[in-house]
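lol forgot to send this yesterday, sorry. struct tokens for the thing we talked abt
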């Protein structure tokens, strides 16, 4: 996590804990804090995509293999996973 993302989240956390704030006293959502966290999430997402793009992938060289960003597999493996990695060529009965 980058320093900026950390500071955005920290600032949102601090805002939510200030007991003299009206929104805190009334238990209402803090729009600025929400916005800070939204920005932090967005930056983090962009950074993750950037990281994925830097990772060289070993693609299957089968002519029918599909290629593209496998979102679920990439999330689970914490790296860029190409769609072709989970793809198997169909058995051809000759
Ligand atoms: Zn591929």
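and heres what i got for the seq, position by position
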């Amino acid at each position: 996590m980058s320093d900026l993302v950390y500071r955005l989240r920290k600032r949102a956390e601090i805002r939510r804990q200030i007991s003299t704030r009206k929104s805190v006293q009334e238990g209402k959502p803090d729009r600025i804090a929400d916005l800070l966290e939204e920005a932090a999430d967005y930056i983090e997402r962009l950074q993750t995509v950037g990281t994925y793009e830097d990772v060289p992938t070993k693609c299957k060289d089968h002519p029918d293999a599909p290629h593209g960003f496998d979102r679920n597999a990439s999330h689970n493996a914490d790296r860029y996973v190409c769609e072709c990695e989970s793809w198997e060529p169909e058995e051809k009965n000759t």
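The chain has two domains: 1-52, 56-94. anyway ping me if u want another try
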